[in-house]
């Protein structure tokens, strides 16, 4: 299908603006100073060779596409649109096939770390469509672009760039080797470099960690991540709620934690549709549907999942995909022929 003239014009406009931004940014003395400060920190704190790290940082390629993508993430879509992208039968059936092929590793991860198999499978399904969409962008260049040319989150991405260089040094790998997402996420689980260093495990005990090709390591690493974030086994994620009036609006926030009690929510017009203790610590989530809002009261493990991605919509997609995958789970199937490859 051919792109419309509007789409072509828009794409050219975006690239033109990014090009102008790149020219201005490269001429910006502040960016040169920031790069030098970064180099100094890597030499002083992490003992990198100054000549080698300077050459590496000086030759980072600015990627306009990365700036474009990070300003228009999927999470900007309302829930009823976002959901369609990740929660569908095709992705769920693929997840069921993945579960069948890797049920031993998933079962062991659930036993050792306490993380449900369907949650692990759903994470992989949302992040990389079971390893088929790991990203094709140079991690060095994407992180470098965001670290030095994207002020809103420059501090975060400089930290991730530093962690990436430490990671490649530890793995004895060329920093140009890894490819990933526009945000610098790597492998089947789309771990950022800091998570790779802190949570990745050699789950199959073959003396190396590989999140790009070793599925056992991927499964174990995701499970380890959530355990380290404080997962509580057997807990519910959320309960349906109804809103009366608009007094709840001041409670809407972007804090991913259980900062209210059920009693406090009731005082502001938010009532759970099931019985919950008034002193139970929770938070409120409002999801945009096509013609109305859906309200949820969210519990501890819901916010553990936000440690992977801070978007509540992301967490809801994982939970709903996990439920759909469970309907095709190995416990309900006798042979892979019961499901079709998407």
Secondary-structure map:
Elements (H helix, E strand, L loop, with lengths): L4 H22 L2 H18 L3 H9 L5 H7 L8 H8 L2 H13 L1 H11 L3 H12 L8 E2 H11 L4 H17 L8 E2 L12 H7 L15 H14 L9 E6 L16 E2 H6 L2 E3 L8 E8 L4 E6 L1 H6 L6 H15 L16
Antiparallel strand pairs: 1-2, 3-5, 3-7, 4-6, 6-7
Helix pairs in contact: 1-4, 2-3, 5-15, 6-8, 6-15, 7-12, 8-15, 9-10, 10-11, 11-12
Describe the structure.
The protein has helices spanning 5-26, 29-46, 50-58, 64-70, 79-86, 89-101, 103-113, 117-128, 139-149, 154-170, 193-199, 215-228, 262-267, 300-305, 312-326, and strands at residues 137-138, 179-180, 238-243, 260-261, 270-272, 281-288, 293-298. 51% of the residues lie in helices and 8% in strands. Strand 6 and strand 7 form a beta hairpin. It has 15 helices and seven strands. It is α+β, with helices and mostly antiparallel strands and 342 residues long. The chain is globular.
Could you write a compact summary of the structure shown?
This protein is of the alpha+beta class.
Key descriptive features of the protein:
342 residues; alpha+beta; five-stranded antiparallel β-sheet; two-stranded antiparallel sheet; globular; disordered C terminus
Number of strands: 7
Order of helices and strands: HHHHHHHHEHHEHHEEHEEEHH
How much strand? 5-15%
- Overall pLDDT level: 90
The rounded distance between the terminal residues' Cα atoms is: 22 Å
What is the structural class?
A: alpha+beta
Total number of helices: 15
Low-confidence stretches: 334-342
Radius of gyration: 22 Å
Biggest sheet strand order reads: 4-6-7-3-5
**Helix content class:** 40-55%
Form type: globular
The main sheet comes to: 5 strands, antiparallel
């Amino acid at each position: 299908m051919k792109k419309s003239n509007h789409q072509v014009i828009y794409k050219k406009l975006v690239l033109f603006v990014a090009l102008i931004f790149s020219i201005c940014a490269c001429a910006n003395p502040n960016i040169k100073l920031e790069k030098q400060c970064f180099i100094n920190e890597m030499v002083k704190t992490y003992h990198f060779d100054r000549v080698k790290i300077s050459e590496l940082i000086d030759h980072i390629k600015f990627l306009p596409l990365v700036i474009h993508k990070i300003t228009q993430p999927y999470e900007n879509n309302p829930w009823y649109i976002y959901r369609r992208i990740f929660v569908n039968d095709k992705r769920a059936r693929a997840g069921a096939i993945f579960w069948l092929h890797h049920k031993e590793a998933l079962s062991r991860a659930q036993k050792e770390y306490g993380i449900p198999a369907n949650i692990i499978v759903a994470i992989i399904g949302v992040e990389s469509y079971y390893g088929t969409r790991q990203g094709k962008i140079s991690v060095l260049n994407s992180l470098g672009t965001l670290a030095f040319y994207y002020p809103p989150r420059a501090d975060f991405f400089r930290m991730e760039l530093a962690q990436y260089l430490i990671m490649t040094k530890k793995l004895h790998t060329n920093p140009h080797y890894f490819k990933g997402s526009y945000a610098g996420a790597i492998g089947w689980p789309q771990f950022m470099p800091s998570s790779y260093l802190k949570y990745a495990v050699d789950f199959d005990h073959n003396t190396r960690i590989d999140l790009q090709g070793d599925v056992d390591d991927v499964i174990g690493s995701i499970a380890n991540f959530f355990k380290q974030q404080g997962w509580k086994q057997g807990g519910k994620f959320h309960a349906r709620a109804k809103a009366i009036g608009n007094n709840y609006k001041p409670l809407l926030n972007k804090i991913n934690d259980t900062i209210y009690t059920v009693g406090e929510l009731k005082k502001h017009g938010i009532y759970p549709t099931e019985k919950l203790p008034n002193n139970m610590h929770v938070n409120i989530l409002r999801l945009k549907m096509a013609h109305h809002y859906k309200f949820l009261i969210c519990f501890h493990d819901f916010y553990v999942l936000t440690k992977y991605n801070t978007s509540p919509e992301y967490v809801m997609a994982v939970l709903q995909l996990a439920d759909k995958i469970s309907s095709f789970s190995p416990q309900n199937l006798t042979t892979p022929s019961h499901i079709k490859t998407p």
